[in-house]
Amino acid sequence: MATTQDLSREASSPDSPGGRFFAMNPRQIIKIVVYTLLLVNFVHYVINDITVAGHTVHAGWKWHDWTAAFATTMDEAAWFLLLLLFELETYLLSDEAFTTTRVRVMQALRVLCILFIAHTVVAFGNYLLELGKATELVETSPCELVDRDLSFARNLQYQEIDGETCAAIDAAGTLFLFDQQQLVTDEAGMRVEWELAWADFAEVVLWLFILAMIEIMVHLQEKGITTGPALRSAQTLNAVLYGVLWLIAAYWAYRGHYVFAWDEALWILGFMAIGMNLSEWRKEIEADEAASA
Hints:
The chain is mainly α and 293 residues long. Helices cover 67% and strands 6% of the residues.
């Protein structure tokens, strides 16, 4: 968290972070566009979670089933708030803005966001465990599952199994009944489901590491440290993590989930913008040190 002593910025002038945020320069235009698109994507994920829940919800659901069903929505909301907090800390707010009350509120919001993200890790981890508990339906065809209130799933596409649709379902090999007993897939669908589940889990864990690296960089720069092995290590690891996330984005595109790939790219660009804020902040610290030398 940047303190009133650490950030030498003025809020009231046109050249202040607050004034510059809406200035018409290329970097700020890119940031505004990226943040706006992320907000639009958030709405898309809310709608997507509602749609999927329509195929998986049942009368026996408890509160944790609902939170697991909307884990992506909760995760996106938490990351969006964290992105906003980082933008405030590393660019927008002046020294005077960091009052004790505001600092405590921002810390509380950060803790809340981390709890939501931790819930996502648990939800995705539990889903991997649930996939391992899927029941094999040997020598069973989709039409034998009519009137059981089931949907056929493959590659995040869902089709309710009824008398009209069962014959059109192109199931290959053994069918699998998921642990929640609301979805059925075939061998090809199960392979894809495992891949998607691991991609989801790996993605959220990687983002947690990126969050940790950004926190380290902010902490170091609060102390006036702009060079050194600790800062370079955090920057290098961040670059590697972003590279792996680009590979996950490519995987989403390979599976035909272009919205997921697009969303991943936007989040990477959004947090790379925070990296640019940190870079500018380092230059300001070095300039202040040179001026006072």
